[in-house]
Amino acid sequence: MEEKKHREGIDLRVICRNIKQHKRQLFIVWIATFVLSSLLILSVPRYYSTSAKIVPETENAMSGGALSSLASSFGLDLNNLQSLDAISPLLYPDLMEDNKFVYSLFKVHVKSADGQVDTDYATYLRKYGKYPWWTKIFNFLFGWTKSSPKRDAGSQEEFDPYYLSKPDYDIASIIRNNIKMTIDKKTGVISIFTKAQDPLICKTLADTAQVYLQKYIIDYRTKKARIDVDYYEKLSKEALQEYDNSRRAYAAFADANNHAVLQSVISKVNDLENDMQTKYNSYTVFNTQLQTARAKVQERTPAFTLLKGADVPIKPAGPKRMIFVISMLFLATVVTIVTVNRHYLMDFLS
After folding, report:
1. How far apart are alpha carbons 20 and 112 in whole angstroms?
2. Does residue 209 contact residue 181 with C-beta atoms inside 8 Å?
3. Rounded to the nearest 5 degrees, what angle is found at the Cα of 103, between the Cα atoms of 137 and 318?
């Protein structure tokens, strides 16, 4: 008998009959779910999103040849992996995990589309950002009221981005959530996604993140060459100073002994002249190396191709209020149907 029941499966007529008997309960659940889910989703502020795409120039150690073509068929670009850089381009999006990089976004100047907000980004998030009521209650009870030994970014002391106060840590977390970077391993295209509660601020964040990322890549790629420039610039200045001192000494001694006939005086003049020429040759060498180092900085500075610029979004990207309410109604319906048929389902499964 039990095997026969399992072969027949669930009797939908029994389930429909139970639903009709509890239709009043189902209507109440629908109304309550609609009201509560609407109140819940209406408390979540609207936000806008936009994106930008750039391709940084990379330096490759060698061509991958046939192996590179094979890897490309699996969606992997060996050129990125063979880069001469110590930091692979694949790691650039991980910059958002660095407190120093994120803190640089605190002072970004933002202006709302209606012109009512004109301040830095951190102040905008603190004073003008809209948050759900439960977030405000949580921050009041457990976040903002807790004392922290860490310093605030507004203090007069020298600020350490790796030693954040609780409010600054929360702001940094919000920024990380609002700005995302990804890279396509096959093409090397870096995509920057931003979201904000104002469309103009959303675009400003995307443009600024793009500029900051480019600046970081340029600074990293040219760091060694810039160190060489500073080094040879120092040597060149020192060599020039030594040459000037030697030239003045030679000129002064030669002028004072213009008509001298003593061999010792003539030898002294020759020694000073040779020393001056040696100092000049040293200066010439160091100056040539300085110019070469400066050219190396330009050579190491990567070019960037902008594939897609960030635009000002017209329509909000979320939250999807209608989809959320419908999803909650569907979930409530399923739970209610299972609840009113729980005895039948338990008998069926037993």
Report:
1. 53
2. yes
3. 50
pTM over 0.85: no
pLDDT of residue 46: 93
Helices (H), 188-262: 199-221, 223-256
Please, which pLDDT band fits residue 109 given cuts at 50, 70 and 90? very high
Question: For position 211, what pLDDT does the model report?
Answer: 93
Measured CA distances, 233 to 138, 236, 280, 294, 297 (Å): 56, 5, 15, 10, 13
Structure tokens at 251: 């000129």
User: E strands within 70-188?
Assistant: 109-111, 118-120, 179-183
Pair type for strands 190-196 and 48-56: antiparallel
152 — pLDDT class (breaks 50, 70, 90): low
CB 127 within 8 Å of CB 110: no
Q: What does the radius of gyration of the chain's CA atoms come to, in whole angstroms? A: 35
Q: Give kind and range of the element (H or E) at residue 194.
A: strand 190-196
Token duo for residue 51: 């994106």
The residues pairing with 147 across neighbouring beta strands, listed in sequence order, are none
Q: Residue 110 burial by CB count (10 A; 0-12/13-18/19+): exposed, middle or buried? A: buried
Report whether pLDDT(65) > 90. no
